[in-house]
Structure formats: structure tokens, C-alpha cells
Amino acid sequence: MSDNKNSFNLMDMIKRVLFTDFMKGLTITLGYNLSKSITLKYPDEEKWIPHRRWRGLHTLNRDASGKELCVACELCSKACPTGCITVIPMEDDTGRGIADRVAKVWKVDLVRCFFCGYCEDACPTRALRLGREYELACTDSKCTVKEREELLKPQSVPESIEGGFIVKAKFEKTPEGIKVVPDLSNSKKRAW
Ligand code: SF4
Ligand code: SF4
């Protein structure tokens, strides 16, 4: 027992004399200094494009002919654990949706949503997806509730793009003012 204790003390003493732990820490720090920078110049110069599996702002889809895929079945709102989706159905035979039953109101309260994806999984027509829009901060509490009309607009990153990289940002004029959006035409992409 005392032999073990003595050898432990000796090893400890040698480590202290040779600054072993200090050298280990220094090696890690030097390694980071020599590795490639991963600093992201967000938001005005660079934007991150998340992977497809990212769960961001809800998006409501249309079919190829432009009809809304949502049939206002309310399954998404029933599946939502926080009850933050409101769907009010109505009958509409003008061809707005793929069925006569369409959503009069479809809205989600982002303050209560925690982006679990249950609503997306419950949707039988694949009308609902959690998209890749992640810039959801705003100063007005009203803008945390997203309505059908807004969610039907295509998001800035289309489904066809795989994601998982950083692109340059560009300024774009929109009816709401100047926005900084990802420049997807820029071929210079770097891995995240
Ligand atoms: S992502 Fe989850 S919490 Fe958010 S609306 Fe869908 S089911 Fe509800
Ligand atoms: S989004 Fe899907 S689940 Fe929700 S009401 Fe529409 S069709 Fe039903």
C-alpha cells in the first residue's frame, strides 16, 4: 500500500517538474491557432445555410399547379404538444386547394413553438414542413405569430439545396424594407 503511494507521489513530482499538464494545454492551444478559422461574419457578410434536416420556420407547400396542399384537417394542431397551431377550416370550391376543405386560418405562435417537428410528421398531405428560416427575432410581439399567407411564400433557401455550408450575404429590397439574404448564386461556399 505504502509502495503504491510512494510511486504515485514520485510520478506526480516528475509531472510537476516537467510541466507535463501545462505542455498538454499549450499543445491544444497551439493546435487551434494553426487550424483553419471557423469564425462566421454573420449577419451582414456571411450566412449559414442549414442542412435539410434543420427545423426552422414552418412553411406551407403547394402542389405543382400552385394549389395549396393543406386540407385543413387540423392534425398538426392536434399533434402539437404546446397547442401553438390554430387551424380554422372552411369549404371553398374555387380550386384554391387540392380539396374543397381549405384553411380559412392557419397560424402558429412561435413564442410557444419549440420546433419539435411533430406537426410536420402528422401532416397527411405533406403540406407542412419546418423550413430553414432561422432569423426569427423581432421587436413586435405580433410578428411572432405567423399566418398562412406569409407561410405560403417560398423561403429563401429552396428544398433542392442540400445545405451545411456558409455563403456570402447580399442586400435585397423587399416591400418590408432592405433585407440581408444569402447569395445562393455565389459559388464560393465553405463548410461549417
Ligand atoms: S414544431 Fe412542435 S411545438 Fe412547434 S408547432 Fe410543430 S408540433 Fe408544435
Ligand atoms: S398542414 Fe397538414 S396537418 Fe395541418 S391542417 Fe393542413 S393538411 Fe392538416
Summarize the structure.
With 192 residues, the protein is α+β, with helices and mostly antiparallel strands. The protein has a domain at 57-131 and 144-153: Alpha-Beta Plaits, CATH 3.30.70.3270.
Features:
Alpha-Beta Plaits; four-stranded antiparallel β-sheet; binds iron/sulfur cluster; 192 residues; three-stranded antiparallel β-sheet; elongated; alpha+beta; 5 helices; 23% helix
What would you note in describing this structure?
The protein is α+β, with helices and mostly antiparallel strands and 192 residues long. The chain has a domain at 57-131 and 144-153: Alpha-Beta Plaits. Helix content is 23%, strand content 24%. It is built from five helices and nine strands, in the order H-H-E-E-H-E-E-H-E-E-H-E-E-E. The protein has helices at residues 2-17, 20-34, 75-79, 118-122, 148-151, and strands spanning 46-49, 58-60, 85-91, 101-109, 128-130, 145-147, 165-174, 177-182, 190-191. Strands 1, 7, 8 and 9 form a four-stranded antiparallel β-sheet that branches. A three-stranded antiparallel β-sheet has the order 3-4-6. A hairpin with a 2-residue loop joins strand 7 and strand 8 (177-182). The radius of gyration is 26 Å and the shape is elongated. The structure holds iron/sulfur cluster (SF4) (2 copies). One iron/sulfur cluster is lined by residues 70-76, 87, 122-123, 125, 127-128.
Shape: elongated
Q: What is the succession of H and E elements?
A: HHEEHEEHEEHEEE
Bound molecules: iron/sulfur cluster
Query: Could you please say which CATH topology of the domain at 57-131 and 144-153 applies here?
Result: Alpha-Beta Plaits
Radius of gyration of CA atoms, rounded to a whole number? 26 Å
Number of strands: 9
Highest-level CATH class of the domain at 57-131 and 144-153 = Alpha Beta
Helical run tally: 5
**Which parts are unreliable, with pLDDT below 50 for 5 consecutive residues or more?**
none
Question: What does the average pLDDT come to?
Answer: 90
Name the structural class. alpha+beta
CATH architecture of the domain at 57-131 and 144-153: 2-Layer Sandwich
